[in-house]
Design a protein that fits this description.
homodimer; 417 residues; alpha/beta; Rossmann fold; five-stranded mixed beta sheet; five-stranded parallel beta sheet; 12 strands
Amino acid sequence: MIDYTIDWMPENGAELEANMNEAFEKIVEERERGISGYYFLPQDSRMIVEEVEATLLPTQTVQEADTVVVIGIGGSSLGAKALDGVLRSITPEAKRMVFLENPDPVEVSEKLESIDPDKSLFCIISKSGGTIETTTLYKIVLDRFGLRPESEHKERLFVITDEGSILHRYAEEHGIKSYFIPHNVGGRFSVLSAVGMVPLTLAGYKTCDILKGAQQIVKAFFDRQADHILQKGVFYAGHWQDYPMNVLFAYGSFLEDFAKWYVQLWGESLGKIDAQGERVGLTPLGHIGSVDQHSFLQLIMEGPRDKTVTFLKVEHFPTEITIPDISLKHIEKNDYINGHSLGELLDGECEATWESIRSQGVPTDGIVLDRISEENLGELILYYELLTSVAGATLGIDTYNQPGVELGKKILVKKFH
Amino acid sequence: MIDYTIDWMPENGAELEANMNEAFEKIVEERERGISGYYFLPQDSRMIVEEVEATLLPTQTVQEADTVVVIGIGGSSLGAKALDGVLRSITPEAKRMVFLENPDPVEVSEKLESIDPDKSLFCIISKSGGTIETTTLYKIVLDRFGLRPESEHKERLFVITDEGSILHRYAEEHGIKSYFIPHNVGGRFSVLSAVGMVPLTLAGYKTCDILKGAQQIVKAFFDRQADHILQKGVFYAGHWQDYPMNVLFAYGSFLEDFAKWYVQLWGESLGKIDAQGERVGLTPLGHIGSVDQHSFLQLIMEGPRDKTVTFLKVEHFPTEITIPDISLKHIEKNDYINGHSLGELLDGECEATWESIRSQGVPTDGIVLDRISEENLGELILYYELLTSVAGATLGIDTYNQPGVELGKKILVKKFH
């Protein structure tokens, strides 16, 4: 269960209502016209999960593997990494996941050292099929481990891409098993497609439950039973010039990759040139509590009033530590925390920080998970995707493209020719 | 060697010159009046390093240890973590470092599992001496490992704090070895004090060389041989309303913790209420290339013109991988990269992204390290501290305090009483 709260005072009722209705209608239209297809993933991806469970999990290759290597970058890795980061704590039996993303020779060398190819499954993920980082890292993996796709090695290779892409055609050439991403689902909205579901299912996560949680909020949203999403998205987009930055303050180190996933989703979707040719956009910032109270809180408290802050927290942790009843001489003032759990301290810090930021008139809101579960994470993913769509619809931009990244790709190719 | 470039056109010469001189004079005054003391650390900390090297490194306890555990948060951990993250690649023989920072029961449980107390050294670091997260995690460590500070266990305990703090008094009570932080050096400016130097020296890093690199840029700055720092700081502060956000785009995954250190330094120093009672501030964002080209580049390229971008890169990596000459059928268009090194690809991505962002009129600048070395990292640390001081002096704020974090601390204590 997730509890959503919005702390700012509701604005003019009739106008807000009209803006919410307008955003809602746009999204219904986007869905009906197939402009974006992520709304259907919670249902459609069940087939993929069931197929992986029925045909791959029982094989000797998968059974004997202890590692799932994801070769992909950006939308092809961030989502699965975020889910692995959070769900690992309740799924200790899941196979280890290694993400080969950044073409950084130091990091890649270290990660390759840790991989035993005979006990690994490799997912090569690229929507377009031609992502330079991904195909390059794949070549390095083939070379380093002597993998020959034309041999029985192909049983440990899985390709996830758009149907008909150059990567799909490569896979067909060698008989490598391929899974497809719907054409109208962009990378940053694709974690609940084969992009996330195949590697996470191979690793042993309960992906069906992730989809179940996601489906619940899709249904609630389109039934107008989750209007808080509309309310928040319309507020953020309507005030983008007052509050150009949105901070996600997530309490728990395991949420670090989730915060990165949010930054990609929000930043790449909502920084655009609008229909009038104006540059508009909201800048996402991901921070982790309580660590970043010692880093970023001062700026939120006393710096310019240019940020909204969302607190994301979990009520009950799967692991707990009781703070021992030790009194350190001269530091007795801190004994008030003895006997409490470490999770209670973290939660207390979140509540105290939230209260102090709210007291400064900063628009705050909260997302409180009762516990870490597959359903909750699925819901959280879809919640943020819907919120992004609402904000984009209100801003009057194309939420789903990313034309600004093409120039750099062209310059790169020229540099090496 | 580090090469610094500024891409934006110089502004009105006489005015710029006057602003740079004014900022410089303020910093000279801050130094002379002892308002901040970090300028002296590169020289003063040599004694600490030499003492640790002479008296601790040869002991059996240190020799047999394979892990240095840092118990600290914010300014007490981020700096050492940043240096460990970067220098590890050229110092593979250094002892493993574990940072106990966040009071997150999931993460702490996992890290405690990985610690063998008989082969570990524990640095308990808190400037005030009473940081609730730090004293709590210390109690958990004492309890979990059955460490008794009154026994010979104290040989593996080290306290780093302000002289006379409650933590110092606690250490004295038990005869635990203490190191001090100068009173006029705040947490986020303290990495070159005992805060960073003691754990890093214990781990086996060449800390003297870090200090040497730092000293070079302090000298250059006060000799007016590094005026690019003044130029950049004055520009950022003078245009804080046009460009309220400063992005550090660092190429290399090993720079991730360095980017976090920068975010703390910049955010906590430069988000303030100024002498006129106005809220002013610059918001730092840390991003890692090339990964975040797939996440944040679109927003920089087409979103509002509200950001400056600094590119940080390394020319030569200590480890390299040659991209094998493999042609993937149907993906031959990517063969242009074959035979190059992975570092060349990363560098090419940096250059291409830099060029594409510059083409949009975004103010960009560059920091290029010829290689990863202790001297370069020491210089980079001090460069950013000086830049922060220049920006703060130009903004007319107190760069070195953090009054905004006190309210949350008070609310926290009340919650548990």
